[in-house]
Amino acid sequence: MLVIVLGASGFIGGHLFSELQQRGYNLIGTQHSGDDHRFVSFDLLQDGVDQLEVEISEQTVLIVASSITDTAFCQNHPEESWALNVIHTLRLIEAVAQREGRILFLSSDYAVEDDRQQRPLLNYGKQKRAVEAGIEECCASYAIVRPGKVYSLDPSEGSFLTEMCRKIQCDEPQKVLVDQLFSPIFIDDLVGALIQIATDDKSGVFNLPGKALVSRAELALLACKRLGKGRESLQMVLRSEIGLECYPRYIPLGSDWEWQKMSLFDALAIACERVEAECS
């Protein structure tokens, strides 16, 4: 089996590539820019499947972990983001599918966010849903994965959980949403699920949020308690107060909980311990 990780230089793609490499898979990773010798340079806007210089067959899995993920950018630049996130992504997927390759597409919980109807509100969610629909139409062998908000415990990666704890420990002011609920998932749990889905030929749509359904305000208050800090640095806000009223109030995905090993609240405790150690 040959596994191609499109976007191996990114956050999720990088973790996925590293784990696949450790497990000894025949592997190709791509990067849009940069000089990482492990990866092949690939511009999704210009390059086609031939740029990868490999033979695509039914023994090939293309994992699509590359996209513009900045929801604000997608909202403010709909045509530019649609071109990369939908048009050129589907062009590559269709080329691999025509050669009988298998597709694993990393979608988002934002692809389904309007009262359990498949009518996404944000451009980012609409773009992910459009690719999902294209895959369902053109691909014989595919899996679509919709993760919740993904976090790590490596402070250097700047994921939301470690950054929130760091700011609380350092008494830096931060705004935390009260009226948006989400279900974060640990990066290692997501990577394990992606590899199992890809290599076991699991098919269909997989919703992979974490078990906990919380608000950022709730998490921040728990972190304050854990760190022995007051809540003075926290500004509790509503979505409408910071221009995010078009964002969903909650992410209504059912969860296949067999994938989750790291509890969000255990992760919060670890993040707090690490920032305390760094600041001591």
How would you describe what is shown here?
The structure is a single chain. The chain is an alpha/beta fold and 280 residues long. Helices cover 38% and strands 18% of the residues. The protein is built from eight helices and 13 strands. A seven-stranded parallel beta sheet has the order 3-2-1-4-5-6-11, sandwiched between helices. The chain has a two-stranded parallel sheet with strand order 7-10. A two-stranded parallel ribbon has the order 8-13.
Q: Which terms summarize this structure?
A:
13 strands; alpha/beta; 18% strand; 280 residues; 7-stranded parallel β-sheet; single chain; two-stranded parallel ribbon
Shape designation: globular
How does the major sheet shape up? 7 strands, parallel
**Within the largest sheet, what's the order of strands?**
3-2-1-4-5-6-11
Uncertain spans: none
Round the mean pLDDT to the nearest integer and report it.
90
Number of discrete helical segments? 8
Order of helices and strands: EHEEEHHEHEEHEEEHEEHEH
What share of the residues does DSSP label as strand, in percent?
15-25%
Entry summary:
With 280 residues, this protein is α/β, with parallel strands linked by helices.
Question: How are the secondary structure elements laid out?
Answer:
Elements: E1 2-6, H1 11-22, E2 26-31, E3 39-41, E4 60-64, H2 71-76, H3 78-98, E5 102-106, H4 123-138, E6 142-147, E7 150-151, H5 160-169, E8 174-177, E9 181-182, E10 185-186, H6 187-199, E11 204-208, E12 214-215, H7 216-227, E13 234-237, H8 264-279
Helix pairs in contact: 1-6, 3-4, 5-7, 5-8, 7-8
